[in-house]
């Protein structure tokens, strides 16, 4: 949309009107989406780079809209954040991850996927009720908190004043904390000194995206020595080619995620992929 530049006619621009209407309608649809059964979850494997077999998964939300079909999370998550629906959606996806984790523990026993990662938005992190929500969901589902990981972005951490405290409390419950999309925000490495994190997820822009060539390769190499020194695990995101995987292995990465190893998939598909790894 165009910036409001003092043009009093902007309100009568049918194009803008339609865009605003469309956004309002989508926001209203999103509020109903959960109880209409349109929201579901997929799981993308996180692999051990040495064996290229899954050790865990990231749960990713999907919205199947009755008219528009699948709406990507890059559209509906920001919308949910603007309208507050993210609190309910976030609670749902966390509960889904906990139910799945408990289910995999029953199914695979000790060999179950080590961890399910759940994205938590800035609004959830800033919500004073968040910790209680997490505790309640853990109790309801019987999920093992040590098999869960919370993924937060640098922006979320910087925007929630109580973030460090919340993350500490989550870690005391046994969950691990990952800093997502690392390198894309405005933060610096010093954030890692202030905020308790266990895992750093190196953003895909350095691995396969726009910066993957010269500059990205340097970032990728430097981050691994940094995380090693600080005793933090690193996960490289967005691995799409065997060459990228090889480069990461050479740099010393142990964990990665990306289309090369598996797209986001149903829980059943993940189980099928996971089972042979266990036998290997
Ligand atoms: P994210 O947390 O960075 O999740 C990784 C995104 O990268 C996913 O997009 C995944 O499908 C995509 N991806 C994985 N491997 C590759 C690859 O090799 N190449 C490329 N180009 N992309 C890859 P997705 O599922 O569309 O999600 C987009 C974003 O929406 C997520 O980025 C996350 O910020 C947000 N999101 C998704 N589900 C949730 C959720 O349940 N809660 C919250 N708060 N945010 C969510
Ligand atoms: Ca993530
Ligand atoms: Ca990410
Ligand atoms: Ca992202």
Which characteristics define this entry?
binds ligand C2E; binds calcium ion; 20% strand; EAL domain-containing protein; 49% helix; globular; 9 strands
Rough outline: globular
**First CA to last CA: what distance?**
53 Å
- Helical proportion? 40-55%
Radius of gyration: 20 Å
Class by alpha and beta content: alpha/beta
Mean residue pLDDT = 90
Largest sheet: 8 strands, mixed, barrel
Number of helices: 12
Series of H and E elements? HEEEHHEHHEHHEHEHHEHEH
Strand content: 15-25%
Which strand order do you get reading across the main beta sheet?
1-2-4-5-6-7-8-9
Low-confidence stretches: 1-5
Which distinct ligands sit in these coordinates? ligand C2E, calcium ion
Number of strand elements? 9
